[in-house]
Design goal:
single chain, 115 residues, mainly alpha, flat
């Protein structure tokens, strides 16, 4: 096998994949880890909500979206999805406290493409 990856090849990590093994210690760490993450998530959510309202006004007046606002809102949604998998006990892999770049992909089934 060729270990070198081409530019068009990438690895996907499923955030909500089933993991049988679970750490008991991580359950207690989660409690204390949730405090700073929750504060950041709430502040980020308030700012994202303001961006959504501003985006709505921009679309209403100009008829197009602001790239910067869209990127900020997308960043909040990606952070939220990444955090929710950890705090819903789906994984023991601890996410960063501060938002990090995560990309969410949608799998398009071939049946939908052909219709």
């Amino acid at each position: 096998m060729n270990d070198e990856k081409k530019d068009d090849e990438f690895e996907l990590n499923e955030l909500f994949a089933y993991e049988e093994k679970a750490s008991r210690i991580e359950l207690f760490v989660r409690i204390f880890y949730a405090i700073p993450v929750y504060i950041i998530l709430v502040v980020y959510g308030i700012i994202a909500s303001l961006c959504i309202a501003i985006q709505w006004i921009i679309i209403l007046i100009l008829g197009k979206r602001s790239k910067g606002l869209s990127d900020f809102i997308k960043g909040y949604l990606e952070y939220y999805v990444h955090i929710i998998s950890y705090f819903s006990f789906m994984t023991d892999k601890r996410p960063g406290v501060t938002p990090q770049k995560n990309t969410i992909y949608e799998v398009i089934e071939e049946e939908k493409i052909n219709n």
